[in-house]
Amino acid sequence: MAASGIAPWLKQRRHTTPGSCDFWFLPLGGCGEIGANLNLYGTDGQWLMVDCGIGFERDQVGQRVFYPDASFIEARREELVGLVITHAHEDHVGAVAYLWPKLRCPVYTTAFTAEVLKRKLAEQGLLDSVPLYIVGRDAQLDIGPFAVTWVGVNHSTPESQGLLIETALGRVFHSGDWKFDGRPVLDPVYNQDHFAALSQQPVDFLVCDSTNATVEGRSHTEGELYKGLKKIVQAAEGRVVVTCFGSNIGRLHTLVKVARACGRYPALLGRSLERFHAAARLADVWPADMALVPPGHLGYLPEKEVFAIVTGSQGEKGAVMSRLARGSHRAFDVGAGDTVIFSSRVIPGNENEVENLVRLLQLKGVNVVQEHDSELPIHASGHPAREELRAMYDCVQPEVLIPVHGEPQHLEAQAALGREHGIPKGLQGRNGDLFTLYPYPGIRRGAIPVGRIYRPD
Ligand SMILES: [Zn+2]
Ligand SMILES: [Zn+2]
After folding, report:
1. Which of 37, 49, 45 is nearest to 74 (CA)?
2. Is there a single domain that holds both residue 346 and residue 399?
């Protein structure tokens, strides 16, 4: 933006720069919508950014990728002390390569997310420009006036982190995306005990994932999926094709183990799966003995030995699953007697694409198994359902609950749950609302203009 074109509100710093007696929270993305998470914490004239992701918007033409309009912080980038990325999902890391040139701050994250991010930066020619710091599990670091402690959480991608953010004026636990998983496949079990340490000193604010706040009970554990997946694969006669989210390395481990137990050879097909697998190897979350066969071998194996893990669980047109359904993939073909398993859920908005894909496969005589077709679980959400949220409230015992990461109905559901659970205060806002955590917890509605930037295709 040219200096002469700077909007008047950007210049009015008096009300939009936190003083030494202020502690603020400002979401620019992901608060009141699914995707494109971008959060700012501000105190004493400085800001810390947490996550910088993309979102997907569907219209008549198709799907468009967007990221948050970050003009507010771009205009005061000298006040931005750093960007912390909690985990490797696109809605948290996907916009760094687009926004960083206007921010130019240090970036902090764990090894797996760093590997995923490095590839994105390399694609934009930024790999050598971005100061990228790899942070170990449970690390503590002072970033400007923010003392940040990384707190491992279970989620559906490796090394996901919650953040304890402490300033002279208050303590926030920023949950990131999380669940309590009693049997995770990759990361350690993070449970109530693990978080009890947080409540030894009072946590003033809990800024918390609301994705599944309307869902009763608990999410399935990753560890229990082996049984359900194995049961289906054992009964399969022909080829087996499984589609899932590529970033869920734990799920890929489970699938490889199922393949081996059933005398099949696993292969990964599709660009995003290959990328996540490469990142997992570099970050040491893919054991060397967990061998895969090259996709080109699948066409030469007896049908009963084929186990293909493929991209395209959402019916995406260019992805492998869709090409297999249309008979246009060069590695092999699927047909009568083969089994296709969706170890995934349908992301809202993709229902028609997935339905069309399933119909196409069924027309070819393929046995299709989706989550609702299986007695035993074959997919687990990475987000906390209501029982887990209550358990988190008990551990952290916040004075104030701030629901984020969800559409309005999810934020409202979590706010109500917090009230029922006896959390003294709740603050519910949207992107662009300025949450004044200190001196008085409150919200200045619509304080900062926000919007979406659409990525050109
Ligand atoms: Zn996530
Ligand atoms: Zn997320």
Report:
1. 49
2. no
**pLDDT tens-digit series, residues 352-382:** 999 999 999 999 999 999 999 999 999 999 9
Condensed to tens digits (0 to 9), the pLDDT of residues 52-71 reads 999 999 877 778 999 999 99
Residue 117 CA, ligand 1 centroid: distance in Å: 14
Query: Are 206 and 227 in the same domain?
Result: no
Q: Measure 441 CA to ligand 2 centroid, in angstroms.
A: 25
Token pair for residue 391? Answer: 């358990």
- Assign residue 238 the CATH number of its domain: 3.40.50.10710
Q: Which ligand is nearest to the CA of 51?
A: 2
What CATH code is carried by the domain that includes residue 429? 3.60.15.10
| Residues 303 and 204 occupy one common structural domain | no
- 156 CA → ligand 1 middle, Å: 7
Ligand nearest the Cα atom of residue 53? 2
Whole-angstrom distance, CA of residue 50 vs CA of residue 53: 10
Residue 457 has pLDDT above 80, yes or no: no
Q: Which ligand is nearest to the CA of 153?
A: 1
Domain total of the chain: 2
Q: How far is the CA of 382 from the centre of ligand 1 (A)?
A: 7
* pLDDT band, very low/low/confident/very high, at 351 (cuts 50, 70, 90): very high
**pLDDT reported for residue 2:** 39
Each as own residue / partner, the long-range contacts of residues 436-445 (CB below 8 Å, 24 or more positions apart, any chain) are: 436/22, 436/23, 436/24, 437/23, 437/24, 437/25, 437/169, 437/170, 437/172, 437/204, 437/205, 437/400, 438/21, 438/22, 438/23, 438/169, 438/170, 439/21, 439/22, 439/169, 441/205, 441/399, 441/400
Domain extent, residue 100, equals: 3-217+382-454
CA of 91, nearest ligand number: 2
Question: How many angstroms separate the alpha carbon of residue 45 from the centre of ligand 1?
Answer: 30
Report the separation in Å between the CA atom of 430 and the middle of ligand 1, taken as the mean of its atom positions. 19
Gap from CA of 181 to ligand 2 centroid (Å): 17
- The answer to whether residues 175 and 260 belong to one domain is no
> How far, in Å, is the centroid of ligand 1 from the Cα of 402?
18
Give the mean pLDDT of the chain. Answer: 94
- Span from the CA of 58 to the centroid of ligand 2 (angstroms): 18
* pLDDT score of 251: 98
